[in-house]
Amino acid sequence: MARRVVSPWVLFIALFLLWGWTLIERHCYPDPRVLQQSQQQYWRRVPVKANRGIIQDSKGNALVIPEMASSFAVDPKLLDSKDIPLLRSIFPEEIVGRLQSGSKNRFVWLKRKVSKEEAGRIHALNVRAVRDIGEQERRYPNGRLLSHVLGFCDIDNRGLAGIEQSWNSVLYDPPGYRIIIRRPGHSIGLSAGTVEREQVMPVVTLTIDSRIQYVVEKHLGKAASENGAKWAAAICMDPWTGAILSMASWPDFDPRSRENLKKDALTNNAVSRSYEPGSTFKPIYMGIALEQGWVRTNEIFSCPARIKVADGYVAEAYPRAMGNISTAQLIVKSSNVGMAQIGIRSEKVKMYETLWSWGLGRASDVELPGVANGILPFPEQWRGVVPANIAIGQGLAITPLQLICATAPIVNGGKLMSPYIVKEAVNSWGEVVYRGAPRVMREVLTPETAKWLRGTMRSAVLEGTGRGANTAITELAGKTGTAQVAEAGKYSKNRYVASFVGFWPYEKPQYLMLLAIGEPTSGRYYGGELAAPPFRAIVEEMAEVEYYDPGRNLGEGLRKDSRKKDVS
User: Fold this and answer.
1) What is the pLDDT of residues 167-178, one digit of tens each?
2) Among the ranges 32-46, 64-78, 136-150, which has the highest mean pLDDT value?
3) Across residues 280-284, what is the average pLDDT?
4) 3-state SS record for 67-130
5) 518: β partners
6) How far apart are CA 400 and CA 391, in angstroms?
7) Residue, of 542 and 3, whose pLDDT is higher
8) H or E segment at 399?
9) Sign of torsion over alpha carbons 290, 295, 300, 304
């Protein structure tokens, strides 16, 4: 009898039917134990809040770093009635009330980026529906130091001010994703998975030297607070490269605690504050006038106590005549009357165009937000006494950054440099996306004119209005400034800006610095008595920590009596 052979198709169909019945049974008639277990677990794909990179100074010292902080979330569906009073003991009623509103949301933030102490109290509640989800927050190891330059971020790590804002595209790494899982017998948890791509920590390296920054901020803040100033600013620059070594603004703020901050405290006065520079502007104006042939270095000027110019007057700081003085002495003694005479000679359109080419009236090209344009009146506005006022640093408004950039050509032999504060930027892929470097914008002075101006500024410190800045530590040169503040179309008689701009060592300059103190209320307001002494203190403390070889000069003009009070 022949054996029957089972067709493979029969076997295939039988297996298919068995598999189909199993699927139907499990989906339509599930095991109650399996059903109960499945109801207790879920998963959700949620973003992990953005990573953010490091900001460091030129020496590699960390200025801003990311740090893990506890953030707490809850699944309202898993809350027991006994959990509500526990949550009320820590969290506001408005948050707890939302959890009882019947929301279908399975993921609700309770509080993000809490302190370690508060995190400990929340953990101690032992509420199974509450989970600690780690997030990055920004940590500022130096506290308030460099606060205006660094800026700060919102709770989602997006930059809102300073370097944090202007370099947000580099520092901010968009969020990745993780799976939040609920397992039987466990609370909310994070899956072991990582964000969707491998990352490198972004880094923005500044040209700032945090040690110089500390010295500058210390003395600037002391001078401003002791004299009841409204604002103050200081910038230290490498005059040969345009690199910003220090940038300070007062009042400062703590980027770690901004709840009660006043708007004025957030203003970076070094780049956002426009003010009339006063006599610190005279060397710049003199340099342009010399290059244009409107004045000669060997001239003699007759300088009475005041002169009438068109519809107004220009007077000396003190109402006293200086007599016949040389062109150089106009800078050394800071003669308003003499400089006004040069202003009257100047060609309006040509001077306007030259000042514009020097960077005045337009925002400086630096890698920071909020850079102000300043105010440079159009030539048709140069009527009456205006040309004379501009020659003495009144009638125009500039930022501290614009002033120090315009002074740099005097120091470096005539080159107008583009300022920069970022040395290098590396993104999250490890790519160098920016590298700061010296950039000459144009030649604005001949080396001869620059050298002559440096000499006048050295004499101003040795024998003129800048004696308050003189020091035996190094040969220093500079210029004082005292400017009235305009209000309602007139100059105030009790509101001033005191300033000092200088460089050192004189023969081989390494540093150029400006210090401005705005609207002091102490009764002192001359640049020589208010700004020059803290300038000197900064220079001397920098020498103590060996930033440069001071090359001690014990020569003529460095006697103790050379520091007597200055009046300009």
Assistant:
1) 999 998 766 555
2) 136-150
3) 98
4) EEEEEEEECHHHCCCCHHHHHHCCCCHHHHHHHCCCCCCCCEEEEEEECHHHHHHHHHHCCCCE
5) 231, 497
6) 18
7) 542
8) none
9) negative
- The better pLDDT of the pair 82, 414 is held by 414
- pLDDT band for position 35 (cuts 50, 70, 90): very low
Place of tokens 């003199």: 286
CA 77/CA 128 separation, integer angstroms: 11
For the chain, the 3-state helix, strand and coil shares in percent, each to the nearest 5, are: 35, 25, 40
Contacts of 334 (CB under 8 A, 6+ apart): 279, 282, 317, 460, 464, 465, 479, 480, 568
Among 90-94, 253-257, 350-354, 375-379, the minimum mean pLDDT is found in: 90-94
Domains 45-76+106-116+132-204 and 210-563 in one fold: no
Residue spans of the domains in the chain: they are 45-76+106-116+132-204, 210-563
Q: How many CA atoms lie within 13 A of 107 on its CB side?
A: 16
User: Helices (H), strands (E): how many in the chain?
Assistant: 20, 23
Give the pLDDT score at 487.
81
- Cβ distance 166 to 55 under 8 Å? no
- pLDDT bin (cut points 50, 70, 90) of residue 559 is very low
Q: How long a stretch of residues is the chain?
A: 568
Side chain identity, residue 178: R
Confidence of residue 40 (pLDDT cuts 50, 70, 90): very low
The DSSP line for 17-86 is: HHHHHHHHHHHHS--HHHHHHHHT-EEEEEEEPPEE-EEE-TTS-EEEEEEEEEEEEE-GGG--TTHHHH
Report the pLDDT value the prediction gives residue 30, as an integer from 0 to 100: 57
Chosen CATH of 210-563 out of 3.30.950.10, 3.40.710.10, 3.30.365.10, 3.30.830.10: 3.40.710.10
Give the domain 45-76+106-116+132-204 fold.
Answer: Penicillin-binding protein 2a (Domain 2) (3.90.1310)
Q: What percent of the chain has pLDDT over 90?
A: 61
8 A C-beta contact, residue 74 and residue 130: yes
Who contacts 3 (Cβ-Cβ below 8 Å, separation ≥6)?
A: none
Q: What CA–CA distance (Å, rounded) separates 407 from 420? A: 16
User: Kind and range of the H or E element at 342?
Assistant: helix 336-345
Count of alpha carbons within 13 angstroms of residue 262, beta-carbon side: 7
Confidence category of residue 504, pLDDT binned at 50, 70, 90: very high
Picking from 341, 332, 331, the residue whose alpha carbon sits closest to that of residue 303 is: 341
